[in-house]
């Protein structure tokens, strides 16, 4: 049975090389293509904001009460001053540049009012232990790069170095909200407060819960991501095809030398200056958001802010 199946497969490869390639490429390439679906972080396909909009905990880093605090306080801040603050956590950027990713995500969500560009975003990245404060173009004179760095140094750097992401996010947000009230000349929300210890409450969200655009190519650089997925699957499928055919030819050479010598595989190998099988021959901006909650007004960022 094994001999018969091996000879049939070898014959099929000889007579239908394209069909064999497609079959084996699908066997190896499709799993690779599908596996990259969960690796979109940092590949140019950006998540949509969560239903709460003001807080999107896709890295499972925030306690439930902290998410509620940020969402409620940020909503009051926008009502009073029109300034939008979004706190975002992600598990990884997969090697992408923090500053570039933050600017593109900010602009993709359109944080702030379109005519004022008064959005702010706190982005926390878990695996590299980094935080980025992205500042809308309309607030760059009030929140300079130096001021953004000071806020992060005072409220985010030490907690995140200890893995206390919840504390870093809550206090950085509070400091930023107070700054926004001061800039706007509005009365500060009395509910704003600083946290003094890391919360041990349960968390929500997570990478699997992050909503993405229904069509990835609609997201910035999404077409590049799809191309990379296709390329990875194709390359893997091609090498899988070559390896399987080479192994098959090696076995046929042992069990049925006459069949092997008549094959194009043998001729291909012998043209390289040797004999035998291939293993030992040869010479060496979309509109709106897909999620609920508020949407950004369309503000833009030119990359102002600070990273720590």
Rounded mean pLDDT is 79
Number of strands: 5
CATH class of the largest domain: Alpha Beta
Secondary-structure content class: alpha/beta
Instruction: Provide the CATH architecture of the largest domain.
Output: Roll
What percentage of the residues does DSSP assign to strands (E)?
5-15%
Runs with pLDDT <50, length 5+?
273-291
Spatial ordering of strands, largest sheet: 1-2-3-4-5
Set down the secondary structure blueprint.
Blueprint: H1 2-15, H2 17-35, E1 55-57, H3 64-81, E2 84-90, H4 98-109, E3 119-125, E4 130-135, H5 145-155, H6 157-161, H7 165-184, H8 222-255, H9 257-261, H10 264-270, E5 304-307
Parallel strand pairs: 1-2, 2-3
Antiparallel strand pairs: 3-4, 4-5
Helix pairs in contact: 1-2, 1-8, 2-8, 3-7, 5-7
Please sum up the structure shown.
Helix content is 47%, strand content 9%. The protein is built from 10 helices and 5 strands, in the order H-H-E-H-E-H-E-E-H-H-H-H-H-H-E.
What does it look like?
The chain is of the alpha/beta class. The chain folds into 2 domains: 2-38 and 223-270; 55-219 and 289-307, Diaminopimelate Epimerase, Chain A, domain 1, CATH 3.10.310. It is built from 10 helices and 5 strands. The chain has helices at residues 2-15, 17-35, 64-81, 98-109, 145-155, 157-161, 165-184, 222-255, 257-261, 264-270, and strands spanning 55-57, 84-90, 119-125, 130-135, 304-307. The chain has a 5-stranded mixed sheet, with helices on both faces. A hairpin with a 4-residue loop joins strand 3 and strand 4. The radius of gyration is 28 Å and the shape is elongated. The model is unreliable at 273-291 (pLDDT under 50).
